[in-house]
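testing teh design pipeline on a random one, pls ignore if ur not involved
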């Protein structure tokens, strides 16, 4: 893995942009508008290079990703992704062939998903304030059930068996836990919760739990907690204020972060980072391609703008990152009627403009 080419002195970044499918290009356009404004205000430079990966390209060329894609993307300081998923392409082809492939081949072993409620009006849970919903999920992003290990036996027959294996390595688990401990240590509450299923998945989460406590000894100031994944979904709704940093495997992380997105106000505001701390990271709104809203200028671009904020933080532009998030918060609190597509009281482009003005 080549070292990151970012030099803190030059503050000049190469950013790969993959607008992708559906509403991806619309929200990415707004995100890039905000990025341009942030660059002007905070004095960094960047060059954005667009890649046409996605459903349209696949339908045209029959190729999911060109062979050179991973090598090409490794030359960048960060990747900004809109959405992957096309109504005319069988589910799984693009998701596995583009999104998961990039996560794996670029070894983006952390999927970082902040869950923050910006305005209580948009929380589906009664009486929860922004201070109650402010946590981060650290999802392992390179192993587990996503590894794709398994087989069919007697496929199509009455005695068919389908086996899908969760693959967890000590190395993969440990580097994920370390990232989570480091993150928890930097936060005010310094609490890390392992979300697992030690009562049933007695191989996988035995490894996770042992490693959690072993690594945890190196972070004595971080308080260690544990919850089963089923109980975690209950606490997300009942007492989300209990969480600070949550670390979990790939599959559980996928599931609980959709719930997390809902309690923070919906897919319109939820962003995530696929992070390789030693390599190239990729930032995306987590809502998907939303074919229903494509081309209508009604989708909420704020998740994509939040992804820009995360991208800036990863590049080390923390002042700009923070300011972009603050601008989003002020637009959410002072302007929007809703975070849902078509109900914001503004168009996609207008919401982008509001963020730029708030900067
Ligand atoms: C996500 C998505 C992906 C995942 C899909 C599209 C493969 O749901 O980023 O959470 O399962 O990781
Ligand atoms: Mn998901």
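output:
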């Amino acid at each position: 893995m080549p070292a990151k080419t970012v030099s803190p002195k030059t503050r000049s970044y190469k950013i790969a942009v993959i607008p992708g499918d559906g509403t991806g290009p619309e929200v990415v356009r707004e995100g890039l508008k905000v990025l341009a404004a942030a660059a002007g205000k905070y004095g960094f430079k960047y060059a954005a290079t667009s890649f046409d990966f996605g459903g349209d390209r696949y339908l045209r060329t029959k190729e999911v990703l060109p062979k050179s894609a991973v090598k090409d993307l490794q030359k960048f300081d960060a990747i900004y992704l809109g959405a992957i998923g096309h109504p005319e392409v069988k589910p799984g082809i693009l998701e596995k062939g583009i999104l998961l492939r990039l996560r794996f081949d670029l070894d983006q072993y952390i999927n970082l998903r902040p869950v923050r409620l910006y305005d209580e009006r948009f929380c589906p849970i009664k009486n929860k304030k922004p201070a109650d919903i402010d946590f981060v999920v650290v999802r392992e992003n390179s192993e587990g059930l996503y590894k794709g290990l398994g087989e069919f036996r007697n496929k199509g027959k009455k005695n068919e068996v389908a086996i899908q294996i969760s693959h967890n390595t000590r190395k993969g688990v440990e580097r994920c836990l370390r990232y989570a401990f480091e993150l928890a240590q930097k936060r005010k509450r310094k609490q890390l919760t392992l979300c697992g299923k030690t009562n049933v998945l007695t191989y996988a989460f035995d490894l996770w739990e042992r490693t959690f406590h072993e690594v945890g000894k190196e972070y004595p100031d971080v308080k260690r907690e544990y919850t089963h994944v089923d109980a975690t979904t209950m606490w997300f709704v009942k007492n989300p204020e209990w969480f600070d940093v949550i670390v979990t495997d790939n599959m559980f992380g996928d599931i609980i972060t959709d719930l997390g997105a809902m309690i923070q106000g919906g897919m319109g505001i939820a962003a995530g980072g696929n992070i390789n701390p030693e390599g190239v990271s990729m930032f995306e709104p987590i809502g998907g391609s939303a074919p229903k809203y494509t081309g209508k200028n009604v989708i909420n671009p704020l998740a994509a703008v939040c992804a820009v904020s995360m991208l800036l933080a990863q590049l080390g532009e923390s002042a700009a990152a923070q300011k972009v998030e603050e601008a989003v918060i002020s637009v959410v609190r002072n302007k929007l009627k809703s975070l849902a597509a078509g109900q914001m009281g503004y168009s996609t482009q207008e919401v982008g403009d509001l963020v730029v003005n708030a900067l």
